[in-house]
Amino acid sequence: MRGVCLLFGPPRQVCFLAMTEPVSSNDISAKTAGPRGLLIVMTGASGVGKGTLREKWLAGQDVFYSTSWTTREAREGEVNGREYIFVKPAEFLAKAEQGGFLEHAQFVGNHYGTPIEPIEAALERGQDVILEIEVEGAMQVKSRMGDRAILVFIMPPSLTELRRRLTGRATETPERIEKRLTRARDEIMEAHEFRYVVVNDDLERAVGEMQAMQRAERAAQRPESEWTPEDRAAIELAQRLHSRTLTREDLLNVVNS
Ligand SMILES: Nc1ncnc2c1ncn2[C@@H]1O[C@H](COP(=O)(O)OP(=O)(O)OP(=O)(O)O)[C@@H](O)[C@H]1O
Ligand SMILES: Nc1nc2c(ncn2[C@@H]2O[C@H](COP(=O)(O)O)[C@@H](O)[C@H]2O)c(=O)[nH]1
């Protein structure tokens, strides 16, 4: 059912489906009243350009970007509370134990997690909430939130280009780059699990696609009679980004190139 209403049916149906899903007592969207923001999750391999794309896409927008917790060491230039909240493993695990994360996962030897509380508050304010996380965590958001989370997989043009970007960023040792690339192969093969797939080859085009996807999702919350020509154009573009157009062969082509 995921994404079907946006693409084929009346927009109200999206809300109806969302409300008829079982809602657990700690489901963050269950507490949201009135108009609320979109929960948009960017996922994809390390080094594909999620952060670069996100900064350009969100420039000038009043959205809430979720600052993750991590147990990894801060890189040179990273500031606690800006790139991440850097914590020791014991503190991270205690928060996880208390149910303080919307999702959390281990990635190449470190823990990463999305603190749940600020997200709930932002959605209640009606702000769009943006997560930028790896694939295992994105799958957790998908199973917890269902259609209420808009999941976007950012695809590299090839594994060779992904290696070039990770190497060029110069934040990892060669050994850690190899570990990230090994994980990337598995992550790319999961791309069909997410609603949209945006290929980050040309950055400007990819930014335009993120904008169109966001506009289409906002339009889908309103009656069709209120859609502008720009909304309709965005919806048409968003349809082309839908992951149902992906084949296993497409994914293998990226992983093997
Ligand atoms: N479209 C693009 N074309 C060429 N280089 C790009 C493109 N997008 C991003 N890059 C470069 O790729 C490198 C990795 O980008 P970035 O740090 O944004 O990736 P990321 O997916 O956020 O990584 P991580 O998941 O590890 O945080 C950077 O050096 C960035 O400048
Ligand atoms: N599951 C989660 N993954 C996260 C979170 N915050 C960041 N990430 C992802 O981890 C990898 C590695 O990040 P790096 O900063 O060490 O390069 C990358 O894919 C991030 O997107 C999170 O809260 N949860």
Word description of this protein:
The protein is α/β, with parallel strands linked by helices and 257 residues long. It has 11 helices and 9 strands. The chain is globular and about 50 Å long. The two termini are 32 Å apart. The N terminus is likely disordered. Bound molecules: adenosine-5'-triphosphate and ligand LQESDW3C. The site of adenosine-5'-triphosphate (ATP) has 12 residues, from helix 3 and helix 7.
Features:
Rossmann fold, 257 residues, GK/Ca_channel_bsu, 11 helices, binds adenosine-5'-triphosphate, binds ligand LQESDW3C, 5-stranded parallel beta sheet, alpha/beta
Beta-strand content bin: 15-25%
**What is the architecture at the second tier of CATH?**
3-Layer(aba) Sandwich
Number of domains: 1
The geometry reads as globular
Distance between the termini: 32 Å
Secondary-structure-based class equals alpha/beta
**Total strand segments:** 9
* Count of helical stretches: 11
How many strands, which pairing sense, and closed or not: the largest β-sheet?
5 strands, parallel
- Quaternary state of this entry equals single chain
Helix content estimate? 40-55%
CATH fold name: Rossmann fold
- The CATH class: Alpha Beta
Ions, cofactors, ligands: which are bound?
adenosine-5'-triphosphate, ligand LQESDW3C
Instruction: Tell me, rounded to a whole number, the average pLDDT.
Output: 87
Uncertain residue ranges = 1-26
